[in-house]
Amino acid sequence: MIQLSRWKITLVALSLVLGLFLAYPSVLSPAQREALPSWLPSNGLNLGLDLQGGSYLLLEVDVPEMREKRISNLMEDVRVSLREDQVNITGMQREAGGVVVTVAEGAAYDTAFNTLRTMAQQGVGPTGQPDRVATKLGGGRIRYAFTDAALASMGATAVDQSIEVVRRRLDSSGTKEIAITRQGADRIVIQAPGQSDPAELERLVGRTAQLTFQMVDTSPTGLNDALAGRVPPDAQLLVDDMGTPYLVKRRILVSGENLTRAGIGTDQNNRPAIDFQFDSQGARRFGEATAQNLGKPFAIILDDKVISAPTIQSAITGGRGQITGNFTIASASELVNLLNGGALPAPLKVEERRVVTAELGADAVAAGALSTALGFVVIVVFMILAYGFLFGGISVIGLVLNGILIVAAMSLTQATLTLPGIAGLILTFAVAVDANVLIYERMRDEARQGRSVVASMDAGFNRAMGTIIDANLTTLVAAIIMFMFGAGPVRGFAWTLTIGVFTSVFSSVLTAQVLLGYWLKIAKPKKLPIAE
């Protein structure tokens, strides 16, 4: 195991070069990093809010507006469903939590009630029970509304969903340590390290990203009447980015809830476009809608603004399509990120925004740097006193390589370093030295039993590896659990520790093998120095 192998030498050399290549930007200032050539990496270490400051946002989930929108959609579903069943509605009155429909007595009344009861049974809430109910009130009136339990759960569900959507938009990898926490019943706190403009953060998280596909009203006088203020009850007047008005049917054919993937593509003129794909339910509904409306335009709407309104040329049954418009690469990328992150269930209102300064962070950085340096010096002194300049120095070289690889890996993944992350960094140094201590002590025991230098060193690496792997494996499992179930600084600590497990084993074992192999080849010692 102590023999020099070409692949080991090559791997150590490449790791050193690659580590320096990726870690180098971290020692430069932001201005210097921006001046680097495009072929060089320019990502340095991301410092957390506690080290470099950032932006703070306090948001309130607009639950009442979400409830109003849900009730409006419920009314439109009632209107369309009864019309399809050829039930003539003589009156429709909105009320808290639902709607009261008035129809003619007799067969129409029974048909309407059966239709609404079936719709209520199909609507399932978070508990698995129907979230709507249809009730006969007499006199041709039927109440169709959300249950009290459904109305009560809307607020909590909306906040939980909003937190998850915001997290996916801002930190899809989970390593940037953007803290997103719940405050009270309907508020969300966002702390974004390194983000100096809260307004930009607000713009990104505040878009509801509600994507819908709705038919355009093509009646001869419909648009003119709507522009004159006479908008039909089953339609709404919307505009596109150029201010062009469209009269759009309120009924939603397919929504972004059925979207499984969005990506950047190009249209037939080689301009940026959005490619999308629906799930099986969305593909079926989209295929049926396009087959029934050949030759008619339909509107693609994002947050109540028409993106485009193409004419249906043929039935689209594959569940795939493309959104074209006046996109740039930047706007298309942002829209794809929003669509893949999901739509906010309710609008977010900004209650407070502020920039967090890094004055305290500067002290934390200084204290962290000092503690890391002191820990490193103590480790160096201990290893040299315990194992001499040769073996102790090899351990120190491994530690230096370990530090370079950790910085390189964190820069590459754009993980955020915070005070807990610094603690994880120091812990990985201790773990790396522990591996060297296990190897050296095993070598010393073998040498004292009269074995040769080569046999002692080979046994040291072979017999200590089991203990090293066991120790690091348990650390890795703990780090993975913390990363999966933790949030914010806990995940940052876990991520730093995970990187350190791999780099410490590599630097303490493989680097020591290569350097000690060279020493054996050149010095050809008769006695193991650390056995004395």
Features:
532 residues, alpha+beta, four-stranded antiparallel sheet, 20% strand
What does this protein look like?
The structure is a single chain. The protein has 14 helices and 19 strands. The model has no long low-confidence stretch (mean pLDDT 81). The longest helix is centred in the last third of the chain and has 55 residues, at 359-413. Helix content is 53%, strand content 20%. By secondary structure, it is of the alpha+beta class. Residues 159-217 form the Protein translocase subunit SecDF P1 domain. Belongs to the SecD/SecF family. SecD subfamily.
What would you say about this model in short?
By secondary structure, this protein is of the alpha+beta class. It has helices at 6-23, 30-34, 49-52, 63-84, 107-122, 148-170, 198-206, 222-227, 280-292, 329-341, 359-413, 419-448, 453-485, 489-523, and strands at 46-47, 54-61, 89-95, 98-103, 132-138, 141-146, 179-183, 187-193, 211-215, 235-239, 245-249, 254-255, 259-266, 272-278, 298-302, 305-308, 320-323, 348-356, 416-417.
Instruction: Work out the strand percent.
Output: 15-25%
Kindly state the number of beta strands: 19
Give a short account of the largest sheet: 4 strands, antiparallel
Low-confidence stretches are none
Output the radius of gyration: 32 Å
**Secondary structure tally, helices:** 14
Shape: elongated
What share of the residues lie within helices?
Answer: 40-55%
Termini, distance in Å? 23 Å
Instruction: Give, in spatial order, the strands making up the sheet with the most strands.
Output: 7-8-2-18
Mean pLDDT: 81
Q: What structural class do the secondary elements suggest?
A: alpha+beta
Protein name: Protein translocase subunit SecD
Keywords: Cell membrane, Membrane, Protein transport, Translocation, Transmembrane, Transmembrane helix, Transport
Domain Protein export membrane protein SecD/SecF C-terminal: 351-519
Transmembrane segments: 364-387, 394-413, 419-440, 461-487, 493-520
